[in-house]
Amino acid sequence: MGNALFYHLTRSTAERLLPQLLGKAASAGWRVELRGQEATRLTQLDEALWLGEGFLPHGLAGGPHDARQPVLLRPSDAPPAANSPDCLMALDGTEIGADEAARLERVCVIFDGNDPQAVERAREQWRSLTGAGIAAEYWSEAGGRWEKKR
């Protein structure tokens, strides 16, 4: 059974956090699905990942090599990820089912702590996943660096 890690952004952006998380997933040998609500947001993330520090191989869903991508950026309304992910990173309140979370090694829920609606959505996701028996952790950067909270 997988576990869910909730990342409460208050000082940085998803664009700054994702390279760290994707690097850790790559080190674990995991394939990743990065799922978002909007294709335009994923296109922006795609550009940020190519132009950022370090090389993180990835692709936008819908390409000819989706199944070979170590990281596949996929809008929530697109067909299921073809890269057989071990890890799902969900942005902007993207839906995650408990059955899906249980099949994966890890689910990362990344949300904007400066947006009250995003915080409430993350709370709903926490209740849904933990209520289904998924182990969850809460990570906050409020103190200036990422810390696991209890």
Please bin the fraction of helical residues.
Answer: 25-40%
Summed over residues and divided by their number, the pLDDT gives a mean of 93
Dominant shape: globular
Largest β-sheet summary: 8 strands, mixed
Alpha-beta classification:
alpha/beta
Note the run of SSEs as H and E.
Answer: EHEHEEEHEHEE
- Cα-based radius of gyration, to the nearest Å: 14 Å
Low-confidence stretches: none
Taking strands numbered 1, 2, ... along the chain, how are they ordered across the largest sheet?
3-4-2-5-6-1-7-8
What's the topology here?
Blueprint lengths: L2 E7 L4 H14 L4 E5 L2 H13 L7 E2 L10 E5 L11 E5 L6 H6 L2 E7 L3 H16 L3 E6 L6 E3 L1
Parallel strand pairs: 1-6, 1-7, 2-4, 2-5, 3-4, 5-6
Antiparallel strand pairs: 7-8
Characterise this structure.
The protein is of the alpha/beta class and 150 residues long. 33% of the residues lie in helices and 27% in strands. It is built from four helices and eight strands, in the order E-H-E-H-E-E-E-H-E-H-E-E. It has helices at residues 14-27, 39-51, 98-103, 116-131, and strands at 3-9, 32-36, 59-60, 71-75, 87-91, 106-112, 135-140, 147-149. It has an eight-stranded mixed sheet, with helices on both faces. Strand 5, helix 3 and strand 6 (106-112) form a beta-alpha-beta unit. The relative contact order is 0.25.
Quick structural summary:
The protein has 150 residues and is α/β, with parallel strands linked by helices.
